[in-house]
Prior knowledge:
This protein is mainly alpha-helical. It has 2 domains: 2-85, RNA polymerase sigma factor, region 2, helix turn helix motif (Rna Polymerase Sigma Factor, Chain: A), CATH 1.10.1740; 105-172, Winged helix-like DNA-binding domain superfamily/Winged helix DNA-binding domain (Arc Repressor Mutant, subunit A), CATH 1.10.10.10. 66% of the residues lie in helices and 0% in strands. It is built from 9 helices and no strands. It has helices at residues 2-5, 9-28, 34-51, 61-85, 105-112, 115-123, 127-138, 143-150, 154-172. α2 crosses α3 (34-51), α3 (34-51) packs across α4 (61-85) and α7 packs across α9. The longest helix has 25 residues, at 61-85. It starts with a helix and ends in a 14-residue tail after the last helix. The relative contact order is 0.07.
Amino acid sequence: MALAQDGDVVAYQSLLAAVLPLLRAIVGKRINDPDKGEDVVQDILLSLHRNRHTYDPKLPFRPWISTIAERRTMDALRKMYRQGAHEVLVDEYPETFLSDETNTPLEDDLVFASGDALSRALKTLPAGQQTAVELLKLREMSLKQASEVSGMSVAALKVAMHRALKNLRVEMAPKVERPKGGAVGK
């Protein structure tokens, strides 16, 4: 280590190769997972590299490096326990939906709607929204392709598509008949 402190690269490489089994043994006593253990060993080697100037060549090297290894191992264990306290192991992931329906039933309705119903609903939309639906949903173009064809920016296409879906949802929703004779709920 004294030679490595003086800048001897070959001595430093030899030192690292020589301490590697010791470091793995120290880490292996506390960390069973080989991948996590190797990460800790690499962290110890980085600590050794950053702190090599603090080593006093008059003192034995093994206790110095062992202390660094023990402290880095304990740091890693504390971090693992902290992270593990917030994790929940599950056998089966919960479903996010109560039924097999999709998130956006309107988009499915666009695909499965009869041609007449869809054509009527599309005609109620402003021109930009009609273009967005036709290019993005009916022709299945990417945003970039639709932008090139329509001359609209990608952002404008996204906004137009969002607004079109909102308007089509209202237009294609089943109409609810109100009772004749005035206000509801009196």
